[in-house]
Amino acid sequence: MRPLGRRLATLAVLSASLVFANYTDPNVLDACPGYKTTNVHTSGSTLTADLVLAGEACNVYGSDIEQLKLEVTYETNTRIHVKITDPSSDRYEVPESVVPRPDADPSVSSSTAEIRFNYTASPFAFSIYRAATHEVLFSTASHPIIFEPQYLRVKTNLPDNANIYGLGEHTDSFRLPTFNTTRTFWSRDAYGVPTGSNLYGNHPIYFEHRTTGTHGVFLLNSNGMDVKINDTAGTSLEYNVIGGVLDFYFLAGSTTDPVEAARQYAEIVGAPAEVPYWSFGLHQCRFGYQNYLDVANVIANYSKADIPLETMWTDIDYMYKRRIFTVDPDYFPLARMREIVDYLHSNDQHYVLMTDPAIAYLPGGGYGPFDRGTQADIWLMAANDSSPFLGAVWPGVTVFPDWFSNKTQDYWTNEFQLFYDPQSGLDIDGAWIDMNEPSSFCNYPCTDPFEQAQEQDLPPARTSSPPDPNAPMPWGSQKRKRVDHSGDDLQNPLYAIQNDAGSGALSDRTAYVDAKHANGLVEYDTHNLYGTMMSTATHNAMLARRPGLRTLVITRSTFAGAGAHVGKWLGDNFSDWDHYRNSIAGILGMASIFHVPMVGADICGYAENTTETLCARWAMLGAFYPFMRNHNADTSISQEFYLWPTVAQAARNVLDIRYRLMDYIYTAFHQAHEDGTPVLNPLWYKYPEDPATFPIDLQFFFGDSILVSPVTEENSTSVTAYFPKDTFYDFLTLAPFEGTGANMTLSGINFTSIPVHIKGGAVLPLREKGTMTTTQLRETDFELVVAPDASGEASGSLYADDGVSITPATSTSVSFSYQNGTLAVAGEFGYSMGVNVSRVRFLGVVSAPTTVKANGQTVQSGAISYDKDSQVLDVTLDTPFNEGFTVQHS
Ligand SMILES: *[C@@H]1O[C@H](CO)[C@@H](O)[C@H](O)[C@H]1NC(C)=O
Ligand SMILES: *[C@@H]1O[C@H](CO)[C@@H](O)[C@H](O)[C@H]1NC(C)=O
Ligand SMILES: *[C@@H]1O[C@H](CO)[C@@H](O)[C@H](O)[C@H]1NC(C)=O
Ligand SMILES: *[C@@H]1O[C@H](CO)[C@@H](O)[C@H](O)[C@H]1NC(C)=O
Ligand SMILES: *[C@@H]1O[C@H](CO)[C@@H](O)[C@H](O)[C@H]1NC(C)=O
Ligand SMILES: *[C@@H]1O[C@H](CO)[C@@H](O)[C@H](O)[C@H]1NC(C)=O
Ligand SMILES: *[C@@H]1O[C@H](CO)[C@@H](O)[C@H](O)[C@H]1NC(C)=O
Ligand SMILES: *[C@@H]1O[C@H](CO)[C@@H](O)[C@H](O)[C@H]1NC(C)=O
Ligand SMILES: *[C@@H]1O[C@H](CO)[C@@H](O)[C@H](O)[C@H]1NC(C)=O
């Protein structure tokens, strides 16, 4: 990244001498002249060329740039970087400080790569094809590239009925529709997470799957854009981008294993961060806990209902006048809040509070976070560059930290140290960051944020009286670069992306696109990075509080690469069945493609009122979200799991399953962190040759081998789900279940159960039983479940460490393999788990065994039981889990 100058020149109005038209007919764009190739140089792994406008400019949304520079680099054997820039200007590029670029392997050349770049010289068009088969994966043939100051267009042909996944964040189907589809990239506060709309985060990556292989295409660009997929005149995918440069990474993926595409994408944006073990426990939250007693009572009620609550959360209710880094002295007095945190910690439970980016604009002085930020000069500035940009958010008129200022991290870290000080403040265990699109309630044009704040009654008045400040706790007294935008119209580029915010203006209900950053960048280019930059700064601030320990930071807005630092929730959904269903595509997108695996939707739904049966079903589905949190809006009826008997029972049942699987999913997160192997899998990742799996987004694999098939219709006690031709086992009865490669109807599924199956071929390290906290869980013995595939084989692994350290002093890695009736357990047991393997259960054993041996010694018959109906052979061991062993049955 070249150094950036300080501030932008005043923006000039678009030159009136140019005549532009608005083109919507794709044929018009295809009639543009495109470019012809000159000065082609190839050396080793790179190809460079000049692209010169090939005819009369078509100036669709601005004037065509006359000459471009093409740079193609074979970065690895599976990755080609194709970059097209305007050498005559300093156009914006996503800063390396936000998305560091991956290293290239210098030994790679075009002759070793699995995918190749090919081009036609005039008009310039390029394609990417598989070297082995010459199959074309991406081709701009007959769709000229258009490159203008505020409009870039690249269009590729696709096969008919293309299977395209990604291009999120969205609530569309996991496999994107190919007819008349526009995916818009522009972060917005998208209440209700509507389908077909731009949402909070932006991940301009797609995977395309064919029966011949899976590949990936990543456009590293943070400007607003529409990606259009259509199949009316042949199928195609078209990028329409309103700034920046064309910076493509093509990933070969694999012809056999779709997961390779995910691993290769992790090489660019980073593999996901590991999270603390405890963060896989149940989280409870709501907007609208009125005071500290409400919070305390919820904690006590979970315990009374025997539902394991690991982490309690509090939304903005705790703040004084909705100002971050404050507590309301009447409703949430600091001393009483500290008592709650102490109580939680002494019970091995945890606490998380919300922090928003917007800071109350209180120039009168006295509000430290504003005063210190002003002193440090770290606010996002208005277009005039002399005063902070003002919005209207929860506390009224606000300023916004500029994450590009090199003093903002210190500021943010210091605010976290002060307010979340374990000695004198609130010792939170994780951070929750919201409203970071950034959201403002002010419609564009936001001429008077003061009036707007007043009209909206910001901050909102309290709706209840303060509680007794000395009320007893429910648990009694127990102690526990300079960028050139001259000539551009930032507010109203001629190509208008389909932003769904209010009027559709880019600046609607967010920071203005002409707001300025410290390093000379403008919000027009960096808008989509705001949430991800706040994420990194918050991760760093939390790390400074507890050096060396993994952080749990849950954000709303993300950009490509966010998962390397933080997790996310899917935003403000509704308590309805559509949102219950589309949450699966949402978590699959984040976990299996975008590499933000610590993800979940608000269980039982955020806005509007849930129902007993929806909440019961959602508690059970939500137990298979990596991040499991019940969260609710301020005006909705309460929905803590203990409030209805059915929901409480559903939660107890499924939390038992989730907790037993916790080391399995913890191991999956470790693997993801090591090499980008996803922690959730759509069915087609596991059955890439079975076209029936390609559209499925109401079932998914939790980890590699746990198939979750929730009931998806209201009032229904059955589900029609697809079972590939493979061997499965019911998770509860452990009985075999043959998939036939067809839809099968599972019936009699009451409101306290959910169909869960083990994919044949797995050895699962399960805890013996669920517990009330993850700390207790870690003291519970393991059992191994051996679930063979059709050829009688199975394998698996376990990773264990202290559960909290970024670089643990010791760790344990165990591998399990099973064939010919013998289970072999081997590994390095550096971390002492201090528990036993209590038993091994072999599934699909068709007849009673004659002998069972452990480490070659015959096991006493009293330690063996065999159930003919379920075909389960159960061998009691009670062997310390600190070395390898074998168990053999015949
Ligand atoms: C192009 O779009 C702008 C903004 O929507 C509009 O004002 C103008 O009339 C349109 N021009 C044509 C030729 O359609
Ligand atoms: C490269 O593109 C040219 C022009 O489209 C085509 O004739 C040629 O077959 C392509 N080469 C490969 C290896 O696909
Ligand atoms: C395409 O989608 C747009 C936006 O949703 C809609 O207005 C339009 O009617 C659709 N066109 C067709 C041909 O379906
Ligand atoms: C898809 O094609 C149809 C028919 O040409 C057109 O009406 C529609 O606008 C196109 N949709 C998109 C998203 O490009
Ligand atoms: C921080 O930014 C300022 C202004 O952009 C610059 O003068 C200063 O050298 C930077 N400091 C560091 C430590 O990078
Ligand atoms: C939710 O229930 C409450 C209490 O019964 C009611 O006041 C509110 O209007 C309901 N909300 C919706 C969106 O139906
Ligand atoms: C489910 O049952 C409730 C209560 O009988 C009823 O109000 C609702 O309409 C039913 N929903 C569906 C989708 O049938
Ligand atoms: C399974 O059922 C779904 C939903 O009805 C349907 O779309 C799909 O085509 C069916 N799959 C097979 C293999 O029959
Ligand atoms: C619900 O179904 C499960 C699994 O079949 C069964 O164990 C449980 O007893 C049932 N619960 C009720 C209340 O019928």
TrEMBL record:
Which spans are transmembrane here? Answer: none
The reply to whether Secreted figures as a keyword in the UniProt entry is yes
Q: What is this protein called?
A: beta-glucosidase
Q: Which PANTHER family match?
A: ALPHA-GLUCOSIDASE (PTHR22762), ALPHA_BETA-GLUCOSIDASE AGDC-RELATED (PTHR22762:SF67)
| Localization per record | Secreted
Q: What is its EC number?
A: 3.2.1.21
- The residue ranges of the Glycosyl hydrolase family 31 C-terminal domain are 676-764
The UniProt family comment states: Belongs to the glycosyl hydrolase 31 family.
Give the originating organism.
Phanerochaete carnosa (strain HHB-10118-sp)
**What InterPro entries does the database record attribute to this sequence?**
Gal_mutarotase_sf_dom, GH, Glyco_hydro_31_C, Glyco_hydro_31_CS, Glyco_hydro_31_N_dom, Glyco_hydro_31_TIM, Glyco_hydro_b
